[in-house]
Every structure is written in structure tokens, then in C-alpha cells.
Amino acid sequence: MDYTEVEKAKALIIVEIIEYVPNSVVIKTIINKTTGNITAVSCDTGEALTERVIPFDSFVQIIDGKAEIIIDGKSNLLNTGQSIIIPAHTSNSVKANKRFKMISTIIKSGYE
Fold first, then answer.
1. To pair with 63 at 20 to 30 A between CA atoms, which of 49, 51, 76, 81?
2. What is the pLDDT of residues 91-102, one digit of tens each?
3. Which candidate, 46, 45, 49, 94, places its Cα nearest to that of 71?
4. pLDDT-based confidence at 5, cuts 50/70/90?
5. pLDDT score of 8
6. d(CA 55, CA 83)
7. What are 36-92's pLDDT values in tens digits?
8. Residue 78 and residue 5: Cα distance in Å, rounded?
9. Could you give the CA distance from residue 8 to residue 86 in angstroms, rounded to a whole number?
10. Per-residue pLDDT at 109
């Protein structure tokens, strides 16, 4: 994972800051702070992010393609422009039945 943040005070087209790589998942840090982070993710067809449980809510928005977001065993199919909140402390995974790009935002507060 690339932990260097995107350059500040410079306009960007979010869907263009991360590329598709064949047979890969690519993660690029946009902002990484102790209070939360924002990452851009590209996922090639057939790839997946491993199942995990995190102690914070996550906001996921699909910015290109289609993704399957599985939350506590329930499948959610999201297309470009759609988003979902993954509740804290729930099992979740992300699958690329077709390739996609997404933005993931995690706010690490409110759970002290």
C-alpha cells in the first residue's frame, strides 16, 4: 500500500489518480491521519479485498465500474456513482466481478 499522500492544494481528477493493473488490487493513499484516512482502490476483474472487520464505519463510493460489497454475508452490488456505509465491527469484503475503482473513507472517531 502506498502511504504517501496525494499532493495538497492541487486539483485532481480522482478516478485518474489510480490505474488498473492486470490481476491486481492497487491502493493509493489520498489522506492518512490518526483520525482517519481516505484511499483510492482499483481492483481488476476476479480480484478481491480480503474479508476483514474494522472498529470504525467505512464509507465506500464506486467511481468506476461495478463492485460487490459483502457485509455480514449480504451481497450489495454497486455501480459507478453508488456508495454504501459499512458499519463498524461488521465482517466485510469487496469483490471485483468486473473491474472497478472506489474511494474508501474511514473516520476514526466517535468510538472512544
1. 51
2. 999 999 999 999
3. 94
4. confident
5. 84
6. 19
7. 999 999 999 999 999 999 999 999 999 999 999 999 999 999 999 999 999 999 999
8. 26
9. 27
10. 74
State the first-to-last Cα distance of the chain, in angstroms, to the nearest integer: 27
Residue type, 106: I
What is the domain partition of the chain in residue ranges? 14-107
Which residues, in sequence order, are bridge partners of residue 37? 32, 106
Size of the chain in residues: 112
Cell numbers that stand for 27 in this block: 491502493
User: Which fold is adopted by the domain 14-107?
Assistant: Jelly Rolls (2.60.120)
Q: Is the dihedral of CA 44, 82, 15, 104 positive or negative?
A: negative
Distance (Å, whole) CA 95 – CA 15:
19
